[in-house]
Design goal:
By secondary structure, this protein is of the alpha/beta class. It has an 11-stranded mixed beta sheet, sandwiched between helices. The mean pLDDT is 96.
């Protein structure tokens, strides 16, 4: 659309409203901000079924389809969980406590780390055995971490400001969570431009944020690239956050004309405002050889397929490359189990615009690729060319490539895997590392080295790194080091309920096996098969009940929730 033909009146009016609202939001006391979140959660619960159903229908299946569990998990559950996390921290501050608990911050191996999950007893109960630790940048002391946490509420609030949130088109909760972060962590009111792919979510978000809209703190607008560009350059916009691709970022910052590349080289941006971003990449799932049982192969195959096929692979954090040991006989056993899971999944199609062409390109480059299930699940079992598109470009669809690296021991393999992930795969948003507890105990030093050196904003150990998006307490963003000239997976962190500064990465952990088999492998927990697994038989019912519990915890809700979870 030619900018001269663009009717900007609705956009300009939204920004004008927010310029006024920014002053009143800055003056809104903590007690009222807490009350606003407390009133938001019932609206999340009340509208949860309609929000999830809208996503399911847009993707081409019924709201009662097994696939609809992901629309609950990536929509109302994520929204309720993140709002609840913020409430937990803000209530601590309101009662005169430090944002972080007494034993949460500690120094280990010369680095400061913060235990952020579980944060409450409910967390321990619902996701038993799951933990999250935030590693701070080298040189950051424990005192600095405590002193700088939640600065918005501890004497370092920013002045009135208006942020532009450019919404993502794939996962429902992303736009809503970015709004919450801008409001509560950075003190900025927001104009949220809906992504055209899921603009149908706008009325649902306007319901959830009704009070914020009424009081001039949030505005939702529709439109495409032209509307986004107009808002990004609007003099009334102070800051920008985008979830999308590096191409989206670069188009805004450097333009799309013939001079764009020269501007980038010269660092002469068209938009020089503070600009945070989450832009995806090619995420690895690294499998460390070890003493796996038949049940371990089955469970981890379900885990790996989940990390790829959730949302048809239309996730910036989807596992695109499985990094496996060439010299381990378990690799073929694992791939056989992955094939079994791919064949058994219910039918569905890739819905995101352009996915058909991207998958066709994968097939054209790999005529030997295996096609499973309903015809759009691709497995390329042995990629040897590191210039392959599955390694160099984000596919954003249901194709999984396998790279086999040498190493006759876990130590040798891990050293190669870390170098490959850091130096060959583009992007630093998240990585998943699967390792048997016995192997981790035996090779503790190399595991610690791998955890330290993997350059990713979220590292999931026996846990798909995407769970860091869900929890709320865990900062979500790329590993530090990108610049606007070389944006990679983006700059900055969102969610981050404790409002930590100086973040390097989050390290997630989950049980290697579900209960009760953890007693055998050495990582006992009470967690059954996770409800977000694509193979969970009761996922839809369980996630619905978890969502309603998270929005309004009650002991009376637990028996039915646990009964469903255990049947999964």
């Amino acid at each position: 659309m030619n900018s001269s033909a663009l009717d900007t009146s609705v956009l300009d009016r939204a920004v004008a409203d927010l310029r006024t609202g920014a002053v009143s939001w800055s003056a809104t006391p903590l007690t009222e901000r807490i009350a606003l979140l407390e009133r938001l959660l019932p609206r999340v619960a009340a509208g949860a079924a309609d929000l999830a159903a809208a996503g399911a229908r847009a993707k081409g299946y019924a709201p009662n389809s097994p696939w609809a569990a992901e629309d609950w998990a990536g929509g109302p559950w994520a929204l309720a969980q993140n709002a609840s996390a913020l409430l937990h921290v803000l209530r601590r501050i309101a009662t005169g406590k430090q944002p972080l608990g007494a034993g949460a911050v500690h120094e280990q191996g010369g680095r400061t780390r913060v235990d952020v999950f579980p944060a409450t007893g409910w967390d321990t109960l619902l996701l038993n055995g799951f933990t999250a630790q935030v590693w701070m940048r080298p040189g950051t002391t424990a005192h600095q971490v405590r002193d700088r946490a939640a600065g918005e509420y501890r004497g370092r609030a920013g002045g009135p400001a208006v942020a532009l949130v450019l919404g993502a088109g794939n996962v429902a909760a992303i736009t809503a969570l970015d709004i919450l972060h801008k409001l509560y962590a950075e003190g900025q009111v927001d104009v949220a431009k809906m992504n055209p792919v899921n603009a149908y979510l706008r009325p649902h978000f306007e319901h959830v944020f009704a009070e914020f809209v009424d009081r001039g703190w949030v505005r939702f607008v529709d439109g495409g690239a032209a509307e986004g560009s107009h808002l990004a350059r609007h003099e009334g916009i102070d800051a920008i956050h985008v979830t999308g691709s590096d191409r989206t970022h670069d188009a805004i910052v450097w333009g799309t004309d013939e001079d764009a590349e020269q501007r980038r080289r010269d660092d002469r941006p068209l938009v020089g405002k503070p600009f945070s971003s989450e832009l995806g990449g090619v995420s690895p799932c690294i499998v460390v050889p070890g003493p796996w049982s038949d049940a371990d192969f089955r469970f981890q195959a379900e885990h790996i397929v989940t990390s790829k096929m959730n949302n048809s692979g239309h996730n910036c954090i989807a596992s695109q490359v499985l990094v496996a040991p060439r010299d381990w006989d378990g690799t073929e056993r694992l791939l056989d189990e992955i094939r079994r899971v791919l064949r058994a999944l219910p039918p569905r199609t890739d819905y995101y615009p352009g996915s058909e062409q991207r998958l066709a390109a994968v097939l054209a480059a790999h005529p030997q690729a295996e096609v499973h299930g309903d015809g759009c699940r691709l497995l390329v079992p042995d990629i040897t060319d590191h210039d392959d598109a599955l390694i160099t470009d984000e596919v954003f669809g249901s194709a999984l490539g396998v790279v086999r690296l040498s190493g006759t021991t876990p130590v040798e393999f891990l050293l190669h895997a870390v170098d490959f992930a850091n130096d060959t795969l583009p992007g630093t948003l998240g990585a998943t590392l699967i390792v048997h507890p016995r192997t981790e105990r035996t090779d503790r030093a190399v595991m610690d080295t791998a955890t330290t050196h993997l350059r990713y904003g979220t590292l999931g150990i026996n846990c798909w790194s995407a769970i860091g998006f869900l929890l709320g307490y865990t900062p979500w963003g790329a590993h530090p080091g990108h610049t606007r000239q070389d944006i990679g997976s983006g700059i900055g962190f969102v969610h981050n309920a404790f409002m930590l500064e100086d973040i390097e990465k989050t390290v997630l952990r989950a049980p290697f096996t579900p209960a009760p088999r953890g007693l055998v492998t050495g990582d006992p927990s009470l967690s059954p098969r996770p409800p977000y697994f694509v193979t969970n038989r009761t996922a839809l019912t369980t996630v619905q009940r978890v969502t309603r519990f998270t929005a309004a915890p009650s002991l009376r809700k637990l028996p039915a929730l646990f009964a469903s979870a255990l049947r999964g």
